[in-house]
Amino acid sequence: MRLQWGLIGGGESSQIGAAHRLAARMTGTLELAAAALDIDAARAREYAIRLGVPRERAYGDWREMLECERRRASRVELVTVATPNSSHFEITRAFLEAGFDVLCEKPMTNTVAEAEEIVQAARNRQRICAVNFGYSGYPLVRHARAMVARGELGRIRVVTAGFAHGHHANAAEADNPRERWRYDPAVAGVSSVLADCGIHALHLACFITGQQVESLSADFASTIPVRQLEDDALLAFRMSQGTVGRLWTSAVAIGRAHGLTIEVYGERGGLRWQQEHPNQLYWTPLGAPTSIIERGAAGLSVEADRASHVTVGHAEGFLAAFANIYADLSEVLQARKAGRPADPLALSYPHAEEGLLSIAAVHAAADSARAGGAWVKLAPVPGHGAPRGA
Ligand code: NAD
Fold first, then answer.
1. Spatial separation of the C-alpha atoms in residues 59 and 166, rounded to whole Å
2. Is the pTM of this model over 0.90?
3. Residue 342 falls within a domain, yes or no?
4. pLDDT interval class at 389 (50, 70, 90)
């Protein structure tokens, strides 16, 4: 029996809605049963009906969806929040408090206090609040994490992460309303490119090393001067087991299409991975030649095997990575329903504690940048990175 899935935001013209719908469908275990897809009520209803959502569950507004779904005997079992950032907190909190399990887009909230409230709401109601750091669903990212956890790299000395693209490099476009809001603190909060893009790179650094960021120093720049928020940022950070971290994120790196990269260097070897070539992981043991680990090849970790869907040599990518997050959540929810333990391999999906640490790091970076790069400490987040059950 498929689980009933609900989607809020992700309307027809949105950037990320199609990825969620396709990814959820790829799992084969989720059915789009209810939706409030658009800020415009008529468009929201019309598009949901076109996608096959029953008319009475094609809602014009998320509050209407919440009120109707909570009264149903058979209600949505997982709700994705894919609206713009400033509404994540209100919607996610409302659904958690009403006892729904939620997958929230990143950044989970705009402020640290809001993120703490979400963590608390999920704990109080014993609900799942996952956060869509979808790149952690890539098979070779999971393989890298497994290699680090098994100690193959030894103690991790350095992690260097990047997310630099060039899509906001045209100064003549800086006043275009579709771009301008991203650099307006009233709408975007304390950070632009770090909160939007760099946050993924930072999450990967934590996900693969199994560590938290403990302190950081940041340099923010608005290379196009009309921008009030940064379009380029450089972070130095220290992690909970002593790893030294470096992160560069940019929106003005002309020629870079997406630019998410991660490199992990331990005492016994180094790993390198690029999201634009996600099916290869470069592995160099100390004193030995570099080898290319191909997704889908024999001999990979069980974590990578579980996340791979087609045979070696056939490219797998972004949608399949999102689908792996959905598959994990689906397994955990099905297990809870059946009263059985979930597959332990399904428990690495990012959750609210990771959303909290990420937004705390963004705020610490903004504080540091304002203070000329002064080092800022982050409070430890209990439960960060720990496997999550139902
Ligand atoms: P977008 O502006 O392209 O689309 C937003 C959609 O939400 C639109 O359909 C809009 O009508 C709808 N919407 C707005 N307010 C709503 C409300 N109150 N109720 C219902 N629907 C509402 O935005 P996007 O680029 O699709 O980004 C959405 C979210 O996804 C953002 O938080 C963004 O950070 C995140 N995102 C994540 C990834 C990722 O890799 N995880 C990638 C891109 C975007």
1. 37
2. yes
3. no
4. low
